[in-house]
Amino acid sequence: MTLTLGIQTGHESSAALFDGTRVVAAVSDERLSRIKNDGGRLSDLAIDEVLRLAGRRRSDVERLALLYTFFPEDYFVRETWTKEIERRLSRLRKARGAPSAERPQMLLTNFIERLEARGKDFDRHFLRLRFLRGERFEGAEPAFYDHHLTHAISAAYYSGFRDCAVITMDGVGDRHVCHTSGLWRDGRYERAHATDAVGASPGAFYGHLTELLGFRVMRHEGKVVGLAAMGDPAPLYDAFRQALRPSTDGNRLDSEFVGQPQPEGRRYGYLKRVIQGHSRENVSAACQKVLEDVVLELVRRFLADTGQRRIALNGGVFANVKLNQRIAALPEVDSIFVFPAMSDTGNAVGAVLLDLMARNLDALADNPPLRDVYWGPSYTDVEIAVAFARAGLKATRLDEAALIERSARAIHDGRIVGWFQGRMEFGPRALGNRSMLARPTEGRINDWLNQRLERSEFMPFAPSVLAERADEIFIGVGKARHTAEFMTVTFDVRPEWRKRIPAVVHVDGTARPQLVRPEVNPRYHRLISAYCALSGIPLVLNTSFNVHEEPIVCAPDEAIRALAERRVDCLAVGDYWAQVS
Question: Among residues 544, 551, 420, which one has the least CA distance to residue 30?
Fold first, then answer.
């Protein structure tokens, strides 16, 4: 089997290692560096970690699947016009504190476009040997892949659909593309439409308003989703539609600012002006409503043109779980799937899939539904015991039955349990291996848990529910049952359940569940079952195991620190149990 390494560089850098068509390991830099959305020149931390997990070395890698975006420019032939690129880089460094729309864009996509405009060949400008020697991959064959193609292929392949529509959306990718629509059939993908107009990006639209509301772009968009349920979209709806709308033919995205000089800067300035005097709730509501309506119009048009009734989604825009719920609710849709690592982090996986296809067109023809994304590191009992000893904390080793009984009882008694088990999840969601768990029956828990974790979230905490009981509690599960295993969509909570589980229900009556199957995460399923036996509630509150503005914990030391700092009351790390006195 060919050993292939996928590498995503930049602010959400990651690495994914495949042995044949199987994911051996996938990790993002932030989990290792402990810096949110971390990334740099090349994802050395993630590269070394996935190789360590597989017991392999850089010299063992046979194929490198790379992305153009954010790739280090020092591995390319420099021509005189690259002086301008260097000047742009300098301005970018100086403009770090400026609003996002006013910062110069410096992606390698600019490099690609300039080469193409001059009739130059990208591969001839790539300093291949310098790169392979400099990064110690002398025995590997490198290949580059398109940003939005990596989004598309990940969603299509892991959906398990034999054929479907595929939609990608984000802030920007290669050659200014921010949206694509395409078709997946029998292991082949074909793009049909793309939006490459600067000033029409849906991700930038949402990001501008996130920033104008005082939040951090590419980090706090979920707060806007939460606030949207508390506001009225009507006062700003028409104004925002000038900043994001479908194209005349309905197949692309557009705005009033496309074609103007510095379109993103003009759009940002326009939005800044029109929101003056409006509440942040109404701004958020209009932002969310416009995004939903515009995307739904585009999706419906594509489904009508193609006759497809299944849809696979990927790209940062589809981190918006309310948008995903509205897509699933369309009468034209039978089933949706959202790739769990929908941000750029997941493109290391997509790049490898494209590399497999490039070498064998039929490599992805057999695509069973994604089973799990537990692709990160795990730790032995010895490593866990050493971590507790290093922290000077006493921990008791229990058999599984005792560990589950004690954890379930603690949750039922109103305590916060840090649950650290097995391999770490890949992607933004804690899916029961790096989670903080609590009972969902008290609405007040949101306030004091947020205070304890130094968070200021507007969305409620999410529930992890026994998959076989999900239809009793949520409406519309059938269209999104598979993707809901990865906490990528919201559902309406049935009225009779809303008062029973208020800690995991938003003000609009929705929840973002994780459906837990016993064959996928047996220990977690047994824990929820044990809590259900005590409470009659077949779900627990699940929030990511991290303090505000920190990545989800990766190693036992980080989980143990949370116990020492009283972020959690009890801690189950592997088979070890500890609690504060």
Answer: 551
User: For residue 456, how many other CB atoms are within 10 A of its CB?
Assistant: 11
State the residue for tokens 């088979």: 575
Find tokens 């070890």 and name the residue.
576
DSSP letter assigned to residue 217: T
**287 with 253: CB under 8 angstroms?**
no
> What SS3 state is found at 472?
helix
Give Rg (Cα) of the chain.
Answer: 23
Outline where 55-160 has alpha helix (H): 82-94, 108-117, 122-125, 128-134, 147-159
Q: Is 247 exposed, middle or buried (0-12, 13-18, 19+ CB in 10 A)?
A: middle
Instruction: Determine the topology of domain 381-579 in CATH.
Output: DHBP synthase (3.90.870)
pLDDT above 90: residue 351: yes
The rounded distance, in Å, linking the Cα atoms of 118 and 129 is 24
Predicted confidence (pLDDT) at residue 68 exceeds the cutoff of 90: no
Question: For 198-215, what is each residue's pLDDT tens digit?
Answer: 999 999 999 999 999 999
Give the Cα separation of 214 and 558 in Å (integer): 29
Interatomic CA distance for residues 34 and 31, integer angstroms: 5
Instruction: For 291-322, write each residue's pLDDT tens digit.
Output: 999 999 999 999 999 999 999 999 999 999 99
Give the Cα separation of 578 and 395 in Å (integer): 5
Q: Over 70: is that where the pLDDT of 108 sits?
A: no
- Is pTM beyond 0.85? Reply is yes
284, two tokens: 């958020």
Measured CA to CA, the distance from residue 10 to residue 163 in angstroms comes to 32
- In sequence order, the 6+-apart residues with CB closer than 8 A to the CB of 129 are none
Task: List, in order, residues 6 or more apart from 441 with CB less than 8 Å away.
Answer: 500, 501, 502, 503, 535, 537
pLDDT confidence bin for 94, thresholds 50/70/90: very low
Give me the amino acid identity at 541: L
Q: What is the pLDDT of residues 423-449, one digit of tens each?
A: 999 999 999 999 999 999 988 887 878
Element (H, E) at 76: none
| d(C-alpha 202, C-alpha 196), whole Å | 11
The residues spanned by each domain of the chain are: 3-147+347-356, 193-338, 381-579
Query: Does 372 have pLDDT greater than 80?
Result: yes
Contact between 245 and 255 under an 8 Å Cβ cutoff? The reply is yes
Both structure tokens of 557: 């030391």
pLDDT, position 549: 76
Residue range 3-147+347-356, CATH number = 3.30.420.40
Per DSSP bridges, beta strands 310-314 and 335-338 are: parallel
| Structural domain 193-338, CATH architecture | 2-Layer Sandwich (3.30)
Q: How far is Cα of residue 457 from the mean position of the Cα atoms in its chain?
A: 17
Fold equal for 3-147+347-356 and 381-579: no
* pLDDT, average across residues 77-96: 51
Q: Please give the structure tokens belonging to residue 216.
A: 């951090």
